[in-house]
């Protein structure tokens, strides 16, 4: 019997008829055998027992049984979009990265996320938001894996499992989902007071953004840029939304969480579908790469600190436009694998101890989450630059490698592949001198200042923003069972600001503790920090 041609009835899309493209005109088994029926299992008579020989039944159920992969250990709930980044050329003096040159257009994929909730949790909860961008540059993939809050809870990655254990739902009852209203979170942040700054941002309007389209993004850590002459500059990355920074108010956030838990992902997809493409400018604050790695007395290796924009203005270096929705959530949004160590020539890391741990963690977790070491071959993760990595085999190996000598040097495959010579876009780590030092498990003395910057942030807020912060602390702490934890949080707030402490204490019906004499550091408020409702200056 001659098979009907695959182009029958206009059902063939013309692409190769392989299992990945799934474009055959007929329903088939995974082996490409055409099926007459997919609703009835093979039985011994219409009312008889099901037969084990029914391969179609076994294959269909087996595959369904294995459809789920582990959700991300943090940032499990996300939404993403494709777009393009265009360099302004304003960064070429500090970085040789080709994609930052004037007019260069680079495809990107951006995933926004909440941090704590599971994959099915609500979008508008009070939480930090992830803002991760994959640039498919001609020199390889660059990932900027940032958040919508410019600081982090901890200063050293070795504490990351601890802060996440404290912030995730309680191990006994698995509640609450995706909210900071619980004992372990407040226990942690009141005992580890370097978390005060990030927590204050979470309790501000920044913790409940109106839309992913209206959030700032921050690289958080200080990075190092290197120019064509080999000179280095320390930088902090900022994304500034052209639509301005906007937040919900708490009552709206709660109502929306009930009425439309998909609010943020719907908003992003609808805007893009309607042709209203969200845009952000990428900007950098630049600092001289001195051995001290401080700027205006601020330790640039401490990820709990910002550098106020009045001291180091953000200079725009390019623009990002999101212009296409993913066509398949699992293939793209779920399988995308970001990594802060995906760097291109001209962008390098610093010795920030939080960043160092991240450089290990993402690669490590993705081996489990994406089922083996070959996830760079998943279409959404593939570089748009030629690859010849000499990595071989492993689970889910898609490539059929040619050649017999995957090692270098070799005398069998013509010596290929070659090392990049001078001027051939090699990534060369910047040769940073390392001071002679003893091995220690210690932080620098500057890391002990946990309160001056939370105070700076608090003083920079408008009266209504301060009211929101007070209401947020009061609401979240009112859900805490242990009285001692609430009291300890109040002693932390006393060190940030007397009014904040007094108002929250009053809301909780507790006495307000006094701050130790001289505990409140004198700081000048930073108007640029309070940007909710404002647009990026033209
Ligand atoms: C995931 C940001 C600190 C471990 C993510 C994601 C973002 C992010 C945006 C989601 C990526 C996506 O959309 O797929 C940050 C920022 C940090 C930080 C801005 C601090 C400045 C850390 C630290 C660790 C860590 C210190 C561990 C030591 C992870 C892991 C994932 C993740 C394991 C899941 C990755 C995956 O499954 O693909 N982080 N993170 N993060 N982060 Fe972080």
UniProtKB/TrEMBL annotation:
Its EC number is 1.11.1.6. Signal peptide: none annotated. It catalyses: 2 H2O2 = O2 + 2 H2O. The keyword Protease does not apply. Keywords: Heme, Hydrogen peroxide, Iron, Metal-binding, Oxidoreductase, Peroxidase. Its cofactor is heme. Residues 28-416 form the Catalase core domain. Decomposes hydrogen peroxide into water and oxygen; serves to protect cells from the toxic effects of hydrogen peroxide. Belongs to the catalase family. HPII subfamily. This is Catalase. The chain holds residues 95 to 632 of 796 of the full protein.
